[in-house]
Automatic annotation (TrEMBL):
Its cofactor is Mg(2+); a divalent metal cation. The keyword Magnesium applies. Substrate binds at G152, D153, N154, L155, R174. It comes from the Bacteria. Mg(2+) binds at D175. This is Putative 4-hydroxy-4-methyl-2-oxoglutarate aldolase. InterPro entries: RraA/RraA-like, RraA/RraA-like_sf. GO terms for molecular function: metal ion binding; methyltransferase activity. Keywords: Magnesium, Metal-binding, Methyltransferase, Signal, Transferase. Residues 1-19 form the signal peptide. GO terms for biological process: methylation.
Length: 307
């Protein structure tokens, strides 16, 4: 019964305009993100903590990708981006939007529904209206570049003012020079073109979307760096961050002991002996200032880890 309910819900979300919905209700968003047990935004999206998002910036893409793969999430990475500022990492919570090629009858349904809900302006501005601080606007515009530019510098300024972040678009933007002038704003896009948006329509806001080879749900945590973007299910964010931080600490310890000549590469690169584990614990005590997490978090994490 539960599986049938979820299937019906997903079908409803995939046909939002036919059901006269632009954005799912909070209960519908909760139903497609049931693994998340923590705080939620007013719209129902998982609300991962700002602290974890800040720590996520230090995580390598490969580490996050590997941890998710080991948990069975094989399709959470997309690469080959044009990045506005390659030297800056971006993390945040996903606000998703789905765009489709224009079909007049469906587009009319969307615009009529938006008008009834009091939405203002063109539909490509509506996802921006729902952004909160810490959100990242994630849009699937099916890779359209020419006549597929979702934003220019005006909407870019609005996005940054509301979210303090930027965008991840499986599509394009215009006014690149103007966007580059927005201090702190960043963008992962598939292309740039001076044209304006034509023959496209909004399909839904905060619905599941496909970004290249990744599936993204509203509220997913995003790690965007010059090498690509990893979309992390909210309920796995803490595990991803702690695992990556622990691996980093292990590496720092191992590199130091190798430079000192205390252990051989073979000892460090294989399952550690009890003596090395005890040495590592003492090293943690003497390097407390290097811990990105609390010692209580680390001790609890190590209880469940097999090293």
């Amino acid at each position: 019964m539960k599986k049938n309910y979820l299937l019906l819900l997903l079908l409803q979300l995939c046909t939002t305009v036919h059901a006269q919905q632009i954005t799912p209700t909070p209960d519908q968003i909760k139903a497609i993100t049931p693994e998340w047990k923590g705080e939620r935004s007013a719209d129902g999206r998982p609300h991962v903590s700002d602290k974890l998002l800040q720590r996520l910036k230090a995580v390598h893409l490969e580490e996050a990708w590997g941890i998710l793969r080991n948990k069975g999430y094989m399709n959470q990475f997309e690469g080959d981006w044009m990045v506005l500022d390659k030297d800056s990492a971006m993390t945040g919570r996903a606000v998703t939007a789905q765009y489709w090629p224009m079909r007049p009858d469906v587009d009319k349904l969307v615009k009529d529904k938006g008008k009834a809900e009091g939405r203002i302006g063109a539909p490509n501005s509506w996802p921006i209206d729902v952004l909160k601080n810490g959100d990242i606007y994630v849009a699937d515009s099916y890779g359209k570049v020419v006549d597929g530019t979702l934003i220019g510098d005006n909407l870019g300024n609005a996005i940054y003012a509301k979210s303090g972040r930027g965008v991840v678009f499986y599509g394009s933007v215009r006014d690149m020079e103007g966007l580059e002038e927005i201090k702190g704003f960043n963008a992962w896009i598939k292309g740039y073109d001076p044209s304006y948006i034509q023959q496209m329509m909004l399909g839904g806001i905060n619905v599941p979307v496909r970004i290249g080879r990744a599936t993204v749900l509203p509220g997913d945590a995003i790690l965007a760096k010059k090498g690509g973007v990893v979309f992390i299910p909210a309920h796995l964010l803490e595990e991803v961050v702690l695992n990556a931080e622990f691996i980093s600490l292990r590496d720092q310890f191992g590199h130091q002991r190798l430079r000192e000549g205390k252990y051989t590469p073979g000892q460090i690169d294989t399952q550690w002996t009890d003596a090395i584990k005890q040495d590592f614990l003492k090293w943690l005590d003497s390097n407390a200032d290097k811990l990105p997490m609390t010692r209580q978090e680390l001790d609890q994490f190590m209880k469940d880890r097999t090293w």
